[in-house]
C-alpha cells in the first residue's frame, strides 16, 4: 500500500527489513528448499530408491555447500546420507569416499567421539566390509562400538547392531575366537535388554 501512496522509498525499506527478518528466522529460499529436498531424499532412501535419492542428495549437498558454512553438521549428515544412497547401489568406491569425507568433517566439528562420529564410522565400516576391505572395517567397527558403549551405554541398540556386524566381519576374516567374544558380549547385552 505504501507503493500506491507514493511512498516507494518507505515501501522498499520495509521490504528489505522484512527480507532480513525472514532470512534470519527462516533462511533464504534456496536454503529452505535444500532442507526440504534433504527430507525428500531421506524418504527416498527409506523406500529403497537409491538412485533417485543419490540425485536429490547430490543437488541438496551442493545447495548446502553454497549456502551454509563449510563446517556444518547438516553437511556432514547429507554426506553420510549420500554415502548410504551410493552403498544401496553398490557403488562401493564412491560410497567409501563420501563416508570418509563425512567422518573427517564430524571429527573436524569435534564430534568424532560422539554418536554422530560413531555412526559415521559404522557407515564407513559397512561399506568397507561390502567392498571386501575387512581389516579396516573391523577397526572402524571396534572404534564405533567403543564410542557407542561409552557415550550411549551398553543397552543402546546401536551398540548391538555394531557388534553384530563386527561378528560378521570377524567371521569373514576367519577369526573364530574373536568372533566368539563378540557374540558372547551380544548375548549378554540381549539378556540385559530382555529381562525374564
End-to-end separation in angstroms reads 72 Å
Shape: elongated
Secondary-structure element sequence? Answer: HHHHHHHHH
Average pLDDT metric: 88
Bin the helical content.
over 70%
Give the strand content. under 5%
Compile the SSE list and pairings.
Blueprint lengths: L7 H19 L2 H18 L3 H18 L5 H16 L3 H17 L6 H16 L3 H19 L4 H16 L3 H18 L3
Helix pairs in contact: 2-3, 2-4, 3-4, 4-5, 4-6, 5-6, 6-7, 6-8, 7-8, 8-9
Concise overview:
This protein has helices spanning 8-26, 29-46, 50-67, 73-88, 92-108, 115-130, 134-152, 157-172, 176-193. It has 196 residues and is mainly α. The chain is elongated.
Q: What can you see in these coordinates?
A:
α4 runs parallel beside α6 (about 115-130) and α5 (about 90-110) packs antiparallel against α6 (about 115-130). It contains nine helices and no strands. The chain is mostly helical and about 200 residues long.
